[in-house]
Amino acid sequence: MISINESLSLTADEVELTAIRSQGSGGQNVNKVSSAIHLRFDINASSLSDFQKQQLLESKDRRINKEGVLIIKAQNFRTQEKNRFAALERLQQFILEAIHLDKTRTPTKPSKNARRRRVDQKTQRGATKALRGKVKL
Fold first, then answer.
1. What is the pTM of this model?
2. CATH code for the structural domain at 2-99
3. According to the model, what pLDDT value does residue 114 have?
């Protein structure tokens, strides 16, 4: 079970994890050890609700291909286990960001008393500035 948040989780068979060789320099072990992780998550075949699937597919992320499969490559660490954990964490973060809905803003306006106080303050400030002129004798 892969827990996304307290109310949402995925089964382990929904996520395909494959070990591949990392890119870049790595010394003598680079050609022998497959420490990078290739994570594939099929959004359409997942157990998420239709609304959540739609939210994920509508996000303009370049990691989602035309078939609706999210591909995450994790190769930051030298061990396969740390890369697996990092890939699952990035999947969790991606899903949380995609299904998050902002609260709708209810438009408000200042009260009559607040508008009156603002105008009074502006008038008072203008009077103070008017007194700063040159003194006429």
1. 0.67
2. 3.30.160.20
3. 96
Pairing of strands 69-74, 36-42: antiparallel
* 3-state SS, one letter per residue, for the chain: CEEEECCEEECHHHEEEEEECCCCCCHHHHHCCCCEEEEEEECCCCCCCHHHHHHHHHCCCCCECCCCEEEEEECCCCCHHHHHHHHHHHHHHHHHHHHCCCCCCCCCCCCHHHHHHHHHHHHHHHHHHHCCCCCCC
Q: Which residue has the tokens 């949380």?
A: 96
Q: Tell me what percent of the residues of the chain surpass a pLDDT of 90.
A: 25
Cα–Cα dist 108/128, whole Å: 32
